[in-house]
Amino acid sequence: MPFASIVGHEQPVRALRRAVSSGRLPPGYLFVGPPHIGKTTLALALAQAANCEQPVGQGETLDACGQCDTCRKITAGLHPDIRLVQPRLRIELPKEKKKSERKGSARQRIAQVSDEEEEIADEEPEAISADMEDALIDLELITDLVGEAARTAFGAQHRIYIIARAEAMNAAGANRLLKTLEEPPENATFVLATSRPSALLPTIISRCQTLALHALPPQEMEAALAEASPDLSPTERSAVISMSAGAWGRARRLLDRRQLLDLRAEILTLLASLPRRELWEAMRLAEALAEMTERWWLTEEPGDLGKRMLKAARDRVLRTELGQILGLLSSWFRDLIVVQADGRLINADYREQLAASAASYPPDAALAACRALDDLRADLRQNLNLRLALETLFLRLLLLRRQ
């Protein structure tokens, strides 16, 4: 993906173009911004620009052609000198029987989910790259990465090593990377992408040039959506803008998984019904939200792997997805405060329902509801009973109403 394809982030793109044009790429970059804002995409655009066989322009207009053999390999994730490392976790997945095996035989599988084929091994859990809270970038991943950086390049002009969600590095991996940044290999740049720079070692931050990526304003997001997907209805466009919160990567994902827009509508409709609900319905509401959370995961991770992960680690999976859904619930109660002041709404397509609910949730009650949701989001890191936690949440939300 050339720089010209990047949506937004004009200042970081100009800085990277100048660095590539001058031939003075630093040993380390730190790309900071909210999740799905485009940090990894920008790092791959940097890799293309630094290694393109037929670059176009120079200075602040320099860019990759996007068509040469090197650019195509980087886009496909096949270039040996451009590596992307993501957090992974190990889960005992349900065993799959190979066609050549007889019914009833048992073998453990270990799979590194990437472009490579899965390997079969005995008595080992699968190591899966997943966007989950407890996924880690461990010492083994970092050791392999710095080992590659120490070797001779396969032909790249400048090797780029990208670490997505760098805050997920464990202490051993972070210290191993720090030693490499202190004595960096020649013609190599490490790009650390993170939404929480405070979780990184200060010494790592000090050895990287920091570029901040910011959310797109609603007007720019609307224009980008109109260009990328002109078939979107106004209602769908409003929903994507609301759910993406200015993160173009998240918006692109929603365009590919539009069932999430329907799930959002179900959840917001449930919230709009709270003023009419009885206290005894808290259990039913909790069951409904748990079921929606499960469907959210299966929409985010379609296919056999998502189903197997849900079956093997349902609690871990639902805690991850529930974190996103609680953010959606928080936006509703935040809007209940804003709608009474006629301010800008996150869920602007639900203005009428918000106005109708505002009488039952005046600002102090809506603020207390936001605190309850924040409390549960913090508790998700603990080993809590999710069903009981959701029932307690809905009891609190129903008790906060003003009749």
Strand and helix layout:
Layout: H1 10-22, E1 28-32, H2 39-51, H3 69-76, E2 82-85, E3 88-91, E4 109-110, E5 119-120, E6 126-129, H4 139-150, E7 159-163, H5 171-182, E8 188-194, H6 202-206, E9 209-212, H7 218-228, H8 234-244, H9 248-256, H10 259-272, H11 282-300, H12 304-312, H13 314-339, H14 351-357, H15 363-379, H16 386-399
Parallel strand pairs: 1-8, 1-9, 2-7, 7-8
Antiparallel strand pairs: 3-6, 4-5
Helix pairs in contact: 1-2, 2-3, 4-5, 8-9, 10-11, 11-13, 11-16, 12-13, 13-14, 13-15, 15-16
Kindly describe this structure.
- The protein is α/β, with parallel strands linked by helices.
- It has three domains: 163 residues, Rossmann fold, CATH 3.40.50.300; 42 residues, no CATH class; 143 residues, no CATH class.
- It is 50% helix and 9% strand.
- A five-stranded parallel β-sheet has the order 2-7-8-1-9, sandwiched between helices.
- It is globular.
- The protein starts with 9 loop residues before the first helix and ends with a helix.
- The relative contact order is 0.10.
Task: List its salient traits.
403 residues, alpha/beta, Rossmann fold, 3 domains, two-stranded antiparallel ribbon, 9 strands, globular
First and last CA, distance: 55 Å
Query: What is the domain total for the residues?
Result: 3
Please identify the top-level CATH class of the largest domain. Answer: Alpha Beta
Portion of residues in beta strands equals 5-15%
Count of alpha/pi helices = 16
Spatial order of strands in the largest sheet: 2-7-8-1-9
Please compute the radius of gyration using only Cα atoms.
23 Å
Largest sheet: 5 strands, parallel
Order of helices and strands: HEHHEEEEEHEHEHEHHHHHHHHHH
